């Protein structure tokens, strides 16, 4: 999370407010302020106040210096002194609006800005245009503010702060070239003014030009060592670059400047989480929640720590809280989905992952986790679609490439699997050498629909009766005690069967998904290999039996011989004995059976061929 500027103090004054003999000193302070020399302006204004306690302009400039130092309470006290000296001065009234804004009191700031604008219906000087633009900005009127900042610069091209403010409006409009041009002008006029470097850092940051962004944030810090926002954003980039020690050092610096900044604790906790320093991460998330209990992201992050500690109930509780605080927080749904996924509650997880990508259609990790669930359920085409989406929205998503490769393997698409593994390796993934049996296991790509299978297996009145036998060496062997399964013929089963017919071999096995295999009825054949399936509806069924048994056989085993002379003939007698042995047999018999009528009884035989004696 990047930190945008929490305050841009404005100097709003004209010389008409000055009544003391030290007006020139105050005017000098005003020029210093508008050119971005804040500390110098504050010191000059302090000198003017020391000489004349009634110098309203000096109080105003001094107020701006205090705002620069994030001391809004003291700044407001100064500007209230200026207003007391000159109650109807529009510039003083506008500066008060800036003080309210710096204290995050936006309702009061907008009300005060409206009052100031009412006093500035007809600006005559560059300062008046500048000040009215500032008030329009507070009221959320960027186009009016842009026009007035431009008019102010036409009247005084050295208004460094006007360039910076106009650049900020261009930034908001995504007109980065115009913003950069204004920031360069501001820096040309005063290279010691830090804010233009900060805003240039934001532009590079958004463009993911991280080294350039760090350089600009660092220049901002050199100009203003108390620029907490620059430290904060530089830390954000250091985390992206995995320079964790540098990031933590910057966050620690921000905490020195603003000890009660909940976002710093939240972001530092994220770094500790990345480093698997879960206790430190938990402490920071707890502190962030203590400081700002209404921010959903802190609960989402703390919930992730609970999940790593296998405290799933607490993880779900925190993620529920995050969703309660922000029902449209995509990441909270993703993280709660991860809780359910880690608990093997895939259906609940999928509901949350889908909600996550509904709220954030470009959520690479939302699609990745959806792919995980489809992958686990062996819904391979859907898994590929999700992994592909994950890669589309984050081309560096290592897990998406690696998992998609595994799915392609399951579908027999070795070429595409190898391409994905290469991409995974090119991106920094580690692939170790491995060996296997040389056998492939393939699956259908489509998603099994349990509702179709369940409906097909609902109660009916039809019956399938059958008998299973094998034939070896001219003998019949009944499939006594064999398990017989019946499955409804669904589009998924049809795809599986065709894939098996095409691809099955000694080195390739074709399986159906575990979920599809659940929707079956089993029977056990009796001593004669007979089986019955009752209560079926009209429809098409697939019946299969695997007949495994040991066939007893007998062989003559040579046991030596005798040789003797019988007259002129030499005779040899060989001796044998009979020995029993077994041969393992395994046969798979299958048949598609169609039931057409409500109360029909269908008779089938499952054999390796025609065995008349096996018929019912």
Detail the topology: elements first, then pairings:
Layout: H1 23-34, H2 38-51, H3 56-68, H4 72-85, H5 90-102, H6 106-118, H7 126-138, H8 142-155, H9 160-172, H10 176-189, H11 195-206, H12 210-223, H13 228-240, H14 244-257, H15 262-274, H16 278-291, H17 296-308, H18 312-325, H19 330-342, H20 346-359, H21 364-376, H22 380-393, H23 398-410, H24 414-426, E1 440-442, H25 450-456, E2 462-472, E3 475-478, E4 483-488, H26 491-503, E5 508-510, H27 514-518, E6 521-524, E7 530-536, E8 539-566, E9 569-595, E10 601-606
Parallel strand pairs: 1-5, 2-10
Antiparallel strand pairs: 2-3, 2-7, 4-6, 4-8, 8-9
Helix pairs in contact: 1-2, 1-3, 2-3, 3-4, 3-5, 4-5, 5-6, 5-7, 6-7, 7-8, 8-9, 9-10, 9-11, 10-11, 11-12, 11-13, 12-13, 13-14, 14-15, 15-16, 15-17, 16-17, 17-18, 17-19, 18-19, 19-20, 19-21, 20-21, 21-22, 21-23, 22-23, 23-24
Report on this structure.
By secondary structure, the protein is α+β, with helices and mostly antiparallel strands. The chain starts with 22 loop residues before the first helix and ends in a 10-residue tail after the last strand. Helix 17 packs antiparallel against helix 18 (312-325). It is built from 27 helices and 10 strands. The strands form 3 sheets. Strands 2, 3, 7 and 10 form a 4-stranded mixed β-sheet that branches. Strands 6-4-8-9 form a 4-stranded antiparallel β-sheet, with no helix packed on it. It has a two-stranded parallel ribbon with strand order 1-5. The longest helix is centred in the N-terminal third of the chain and has 14 residues, at 38-51. The protein has helices spanning 23-34, 38-51, 56-68, 72-85, 90-102, 106-118, 126-138, 142-155, 160-172, 176-189, 195-206, 210-223, 228-240, 244-257, 262-274, 278-291, 296-308, 312-325, 330-342, 346-359, 364-376, 380-393, 398-410, 414-426, 450-456, 491-503, 514-518, and strands spanning 440-442, 462-472, 475-478, 483-488, 508-510, 521-524, 530-536, 539-566, 569-595, 601-606.
């Amino acid at each position: 999370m990047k930190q945008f500027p929490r305050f841009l103090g404005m100097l709003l004054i004209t010389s008409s407010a000055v009544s003391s003999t030290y007006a020139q000193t105050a005017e000098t302070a005003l020029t210093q302020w508008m050119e971005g020399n804040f500390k110098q302006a504050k010191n000059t204004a302090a000198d003017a106040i020391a000489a004349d306690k009634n110098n309203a302009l000096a109080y105003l400039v001094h107020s701006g210096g205090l705002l620069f130092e994030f001391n809004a309470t003291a700044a407001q006290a100064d500007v209230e002194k200026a207003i007391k000296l000159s109650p109807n001065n529009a510039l003083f009234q506008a500066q008060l609006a800036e003080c309210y804004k710096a204290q995050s009191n936006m309702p009061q700031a907008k009300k005060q800005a409206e009052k100031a604008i009412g006093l500035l219906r007809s600006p005559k000087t560059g300062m008046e245009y500048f000040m009215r633009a500032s008030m329009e900005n507070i009221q959320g009127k960027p186009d009016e503010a842009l026009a007035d900042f431009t008019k102010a610069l036409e009247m005084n091209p050295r208004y460094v702060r006007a360039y910076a403010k106009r650049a900020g409006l261009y930034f908001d409009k995504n007109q980065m070239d115009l913003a950069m041009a204004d920031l360069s002008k501001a820096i040309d006029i005063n290279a010691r003014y830090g804010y233009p470097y900060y805003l240039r850092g934001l532009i590079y940051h958004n463009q993911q030009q991280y080294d350039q962004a760090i350089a600009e944030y660092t220049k901002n810090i050199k100009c203003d060592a108390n620029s907490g926002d620059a430290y904060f954003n530089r830390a954000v980039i250091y985390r992206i670059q995995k320079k964790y020690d540098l990031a933590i050092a910057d966050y620690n610096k921000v905490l020195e400047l603003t000890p009660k900044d909940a976002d710093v604790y939240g972001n530092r906790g994220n770094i500790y989480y990345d480093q698997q320093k879960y206790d430190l991460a938990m402490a920071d998330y707890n502190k962030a929640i203590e400081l700002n209990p209404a921010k959903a992201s802190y609960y989402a992050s703390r919930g992730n720590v609970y999940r790593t500690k296998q405290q799933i109930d607490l993880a779900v509780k925190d993620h529920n809280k995050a969703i309660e605080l922000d029902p449209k927080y995509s990441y909270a749904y993703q993280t709660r989905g991860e809780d359910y996924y880690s608990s093997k509650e895939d259906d609940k997880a999928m509901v949350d992952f889908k909600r996550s990508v509904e709220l954030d259609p470009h959520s690479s990790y939302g699609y990745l986790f959806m792919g995980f669930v489809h992958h686990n359920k062996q819904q391979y085409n859907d898994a590929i679609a999700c992994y592909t989406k994950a890669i589309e929205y984050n081309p560096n998503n290592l897990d998406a490439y690696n998992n998609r490769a595994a799915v392609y393997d399951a579908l027999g698409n070795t070429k595409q699997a190898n391409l994905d593994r290469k991409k995974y390796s090119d991106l920094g993934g580690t692939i170790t050498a491995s060996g296997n049996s040389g056998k492939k296991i393939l699956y259908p790509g489509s998603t099994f629909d349990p509702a179709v299978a369940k409906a097909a297996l609902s109660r009916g009145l039809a019956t399938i009766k059958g008998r299973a036998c094998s034939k070896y060496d001219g003998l019949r062997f009944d499939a006594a005690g064999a398990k017989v399964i019946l499955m409804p013929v669904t589009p998924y089963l049809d795809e599986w069967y065709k894939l098996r017919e095409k691809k099955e071999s000694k080195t390739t096995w074709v399986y159906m998904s575990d979920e599809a295999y659940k929707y079956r009825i089993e029977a056990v054949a009796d001593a004669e290999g007979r089986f019955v399936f009752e209560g079926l509806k009209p429809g098409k069924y697939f019946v299969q039996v695997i007949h495994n048994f040991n066939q007893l056989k007998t062989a003559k085993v040579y046991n030596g011989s005798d040789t003797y002379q019988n007259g002129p003939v030499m005779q040899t007698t060989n001796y044998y004995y009979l020995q029993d042995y077994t041969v393992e047999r395994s046969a798979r018999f299958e048949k598609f059976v169609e039931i057409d009528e409500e109360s029909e009884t269908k008779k089938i035989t499952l054999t390796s061929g025609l065995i008349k004696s096996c018929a019912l």
